[in-house]
Amino acid sequence: MPQPPSATTLSARSLTRRFGAHTAVSSIDLELKRGEVLGFLGPNGAGKTTTMQMLTGNLAPTEGSVAICGIDLLEQPTAAKSKLGYLPETPPLYRELNVDEYLMLAAKLHRVPHAVRKAAVAKAKERCGLTEVGRKLIAHLSKGYQQRVGIAQAIVHEPDVVIMDEPTVGLDPHQIRGIRALIRELGSSHSVILSTHILPEVEAVCDRVHIMHHGRFVYGDTITALKQIHSGRIMLLGLKRPPPLGELQSVGGLAAVERLDDHHFRVQFETRDDAVDAVIAQCVARDWGLYQLAPAQSSLEDVFVNLTRREEEQVPAG
Amino acid sequence: MIVTIAGKELKTLFASPLAWLVLTVLQFVLGYVFLKRLDDFLQIQPQLIQLASPPGVTEMVAAPMFALAAIVLLFAVPLLAMRVIAEERRNQTMVLLLSAPVSIAEIVVGKFLGLLVFLLIIIALISLMPLSLAATTQLDYGLLASMLLGLILLATNFAAVSLYVSSLTAQPMAAALGAFAALLAMILMGETAGDSLRARAWDIPAALVQVFSPLKNFEPLGKGVVDTAVIACFLLLTVMFLILTVRRLDAQRVRG
Lengths: 318, 256
Prior knowledge:
The complex is a heterodimer.
Chain A: E1 8-19, E2 22-33, E3 37-41, H1 48-55, E4 63-68, E5 71-72, H2 77-81, E6 84-87, H3 99-109, H4 114-127, H5 143-155, E7 161-165, H6 173-189, E8 191-196, H7 199-205, E9 208-213, E10 216-222, H8 223-230, E11 234-239, H9 245-249, E12 254-259, E13 264-269, H10 275-285, E14 290-295, H11 300-313
Helix pairs in contact in A: 3-4, 3-5, 4-5
Chain B: H1 2-15, H2 17-49, H3 57-90, H4 94-99, H5 104-131, H6 141-166, H7 172-199, H8 203-211, H9 214-222, H10 228-255
């Protein structure tokens, strides 16, 4: 069924989930188009997994609705689920089956027609690098291979939307590269949502990113925009003869200064283009002995803390 | 889809040592009892012949064996059923079924049928023992069929109740013990309450208790009396617990 490439494959409206008094996810809106890879970033307990469980029909939302390719997940669960592939945090593997048996079962459950079932399993195995372990028991596979079987299970029926909860956990760097390439490939024809803690992973595979915090989306933008936020603006400044903190904070061009030790500061530049030039010029003019100016380690935490802080300063959205 | 799930249950069951262990132990215990009973029968046969209508080999050997098989199933079914839902939940493999385009009713019926087919294999192996006498003596096939029907219906009841208890917890051991306790409670209730209620002519409570007393309902079938009311009781209990299981799994999706 050829559909226009811009067709919306998944949309969620004001999705909310409460566990008793605790609100795990609060009114999330989400729209996903064909050929898009969306990353969920966030610390543990941010509500990523809960959101994914709701998007896949494993958990009923307290409020809100989910539609997969226009089919309401709550009203027509069977029809909607046939367009979904889901890899949960713990891959749902039957350890007593071998890889071929297991993938055949997954294909049958997802109503892959009998005539093409073998071919579908072979294709999924090839995509996930499982061709050689087809006859091995899943229980005897290493963690990385088990993870790949989990991914194969999610894509064997060529779903329109693939949802993966931390797909690269437990893989070695080489396998991670392979899986990322696979996700990119899937993203060209399907829609993919993946959750992760790893920022480079988002940068490597995603088109768009949503950062979750306390069950809400605190940030949502394209990956290019995210890169700009955390690269270039936050830097490590090393001074041989540093002035008092107050004096440094008053320097034009710096938005924020944080002292790390006697000689090192984490500085955030203002957004204007000549901010870095202005700061360097002042450091030299005042003879502070500038010897280091390097991009700060761009950890997820940096971005994350930054974004949540900014969110709280603004009027709370929603 | 139901067949797929039932097939998967059977396949994973036979891939685990538990199924083979249960089959082995059952065959060993019942085989011993069968031979012992047969031996006793052969010893007292000369005296039996002097009676006006002597009990046959089916009555003397097969009937007690089927009665014992019923008790053995009481232990075996909860053990087999614990893995069907509780263990899947503990291993978090239930997600595969819940994310697939399959309704919860299909999942439950598929799992139930998978379990039932395994129990039918056990029952078939048990029936082969008395049937092996067919070559040398005249068997009472009517009585045999009635006992067989009784054992199958009993197995469906045990399976449905155990499946429901299995859906209540993610601890397989708790599921097995819970199912055993539930079945035992039902049997004890049938033994004690049923008769006293009927003695006081409280028909409706007595009928309700009868639905919940599978072993009591097995008794007439074990004697060769095929009573449709009894069969209805068996089916009612089975359907009821299957519906409860579906509702329970659905509630888990809502409550998380």
